[in-house]
Amino acid sequence: MKRKFSVTGMMCAACAAGIERAVKKLDGVESCEVSLMGESMEVVFDAAKVSPEQIKAAVDGLGYRAYDYGKIPEKKKHELTLLVRFLVSLVLLVPLMYFTMGGMVGIPTPHGWLNYGFQIGLTTIILAVNYKFFTSGVRAVFHGAPNMDTLIALGSATSYLYSLVVLILHEAGAMGEMADMGGMEGPALFFESAAMIVTLVCLGKFLEDKSKKRTGRELEKLTRLAPETVRIVRDGTECEVPMSEVEVSDIVIVKQGERVAVDGEVLEGHAFADESALTGESLPVELSEGSRVKSSSLITDGFLKIRAEKVGEDTMLAGIVRMVREAGTSKAPIQKLADKIAAVFVPAVTIIAIVTFIIWISVTGDAAKAVNYGVCVLVISCPCALGLATPVAIMAATGRGARMGILFKNAEALQKSAKISHVFLDKTATVTEGRPQVVYFSGDEIAKKVAYGVEKKLNHPLAQCIVEFCGEGFEADEVQFVVRRGAVAHVNGKTYLLGNEALMAENKISLGKWQETFETLTAEGKTVLFLADMGGVFAVFGLADTLKADSKSAIGELRALGCTPVMLTGDNSAVAKHIAAEAGFADGCVFAELLPAQKLHEVQKKRQENEQARSQKGKFQREKATCGYVAMAGDGINDAPALKEADVGIAMGNGTDVAIETADAVLIGGEISALPKAIRLAKKTMRIIKQNLFWAFFYNCVGIPVAAGAFAALGFALAPWMAAAAMSLSSLFVTCNALRLTLGGTKNSKNAKRSTNSKS
């Protein structure tokens, strides 16, 4: 059984690692994965051996809180508490600094126990205000899962208790006089360090929480797109009801300026809808009777009556929000190393701090200095930066992608998309529009009117194509459809034939002067239909599935990104070659007349070649290799096997449900121009993740030796409060760096959209 829970109270990757270890120890638990950013936990367990309540109890026992997924308490209270704690601590810290540091800068201060009393009292209150650091840190130690709070609690408590003991011993005469840092007579105390550590960390956690919240802001924008109330027609009466009361088959009325609340079919009306919230495309879509409409679409002009087919959690918007949330909380492969280090980080740092204290006390005999460096090591270490480096960027990227019309289903797909070397593209409805259009016509207006009449009463796709092209015409009688040939009808009392060359041959009608036109159009992969009467052919239509407006620019962008586009199609070679040449595919990158199994084979073959090439290189070379991952983009049922086999399967949002379910990513608007945007977003995300990981490792590798006094001989050393500030800034830097993903689009995305719009 698989179950997801919401978890609150986690502060760093060590918290998540501790929860995972504790839950995995339960009998019957097969696996446990905790997401720090998503505040969630996914557990696979045997329900006969362990219950969800026992799993939640194990988490609660560590000092965190586990809930059924989605039932997490409101966060504002937590943020307010952090802010209040910081403000109270700051107000008390100012007079404390006066009593501890005033004498150093020549400000008159009380002496003796009056001064010490204020220091002890103010520090005690500040520590009491921030008691949660201590309760969380101590509880985590007792449960074998020390976390960042453990380091903070240990550092501030050591400073406080050391100062208290030294002061008591000094005043009792058990110790000799010690010169403090200001040169004043009296013992070297660290009360201000103990107070400043928790104050600065509290500020850092508040700012970090606010920054992390911004990473989910794109997702919040999506959830707010659904209207709270909906106007419907029931029993012939128009009424307004809450969104939750709308049912399938209800007739929904949407007017100008309102958002559509359901997925459904337009029954009546005409309107233009802005679907950019879902597809990322700014051009409005024209809707009329029979059109499909998506939830969250904004009606910019017009009026619609819609039959609701999907409501609530079944709508496309709800599905997107659900998948984006799951993708944002999933773990990318690159995160595994950071998780392993975070799991042992706190115990390792604690040992380093103890060793630092022992070395300094042994070498110098100065207990104050030894405590100073030991506390600095505890406080400067930052498992937060390490744990947040990847998940905060993943959540920001998936949210941003959703706003661009790009839906990554998991973090692994996002990571692999950054290193795609080959993109296999289905032709029909991916590179092309997926429906035939008249691209060539030779004849007069009378011919158009006759053709309209012949095809008007037929449901064949080619017939509908000609009707749309001709626009209007005569009425036809006795229309007869001839399978695989065309149609015969009477218009104004005269017999006409509209069909292919086989229909003409069967009726002994010569192509005559149209023979050369027929051969030319056929060579270009077009379907040729002739309009004739018994006297001969007098008009020719050339039909073809045309290239999407953005396909050529998208293929060019893929090349610029270092990807090799390859077309796979079941269509004939002539059609495939013509489309490929028009779109800009390179020679040798077109495979035609393929069955679904053959499409699968081509993807498997290239994937195996790339895997073999990567395995022959060293680890560093493998990262830089051009033989990266294989992507497959398609929309149909016949593409599903290849989508599943590819390293990254990419479905067009207007495709079949099977393709969308099978794929790792979805281009919601069905536009191929979103594909290079997706790759560009993935590349930017991975750059930021690598920057974050580098910073987290670099910060800790450099910060810990500096805090331990490795450069003290050069006159460069830290006080505990400086270490606390550095620790808070470290995790804040990682979070803010990831927030760059939410600011605007990816490089060239605006230009790409402008190009697409101009072509339209």
Q: How much strand content do the residues show?
A: 15-25%
**Share of residues in helices:** 40-55%
Please give the count of helices: 29
The gyration radius over C-alpha positions equals 35 Å
Q: Total domains, how many?
A: 5
How does the helix and strand content classify structurally?
A: alpha+beta
From the structure provided, what is the oligomeric state, counting identical versus distinct chains? single chain
End-to-end Cα distance, whole Å, is 50 Å
Average pLDDT over all residues: 86
| Major sheet details | 7 strands, antiparallel
Question: Which of globular, elongated, flat, extended, rod-shaped describes the shape?
Answer: elongated
Detail the poorly predicted runs.
175-184, 745-760
Task: Tally the beta strands.
Answer: 24
